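Aim 2 progress update. The chain analyzed this quarter is reproduced below.
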Amino acid sequence: MIKPVRVLAVGLALALAWLPSAAAADELIGTYVARISWKDHESSTGRKLDTAAQVVRQDRANVHKHIQTDEEDDIDVWFTTNAKRTSFEVLLNREGAIDQATRRAIMEGEPLIEVEVYRNSVKVVLLSG
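Predicted structure tokens:
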């Protein structure tokens, strides 16, 4: 008969051994800085955007499609097409991608942000504003 404590210990050891490989699977591939300005709060058709994810996505559309950059905007290599920006918005809507304080800053002002781009996720960090 297998003792429950031994099964628990083996299960815990396997879980801990898996953690480093899970973290490596979502490795950081780069970052960019962006100023979220008034023009990022409206869609290309002039509609007011409702979420922080939409605003951050629109910032990239303004950079790549409309060539409307703010002075602090970096040019990224990941979100150059509409299809890539659609996938980006999905990542931005995942839990943990944008914390509540950063969401509020994006929706209520013109903050400076940094976007960390990972293989399977993104994270938006508030730098100022």
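The helical segments are 4-25, 52-64, 82-92, 100-108. Residues 32 and 76 are 6 Å apart (CA to CA). These observations will guide the mutagenesis experiments scheduled for the next reporting period.
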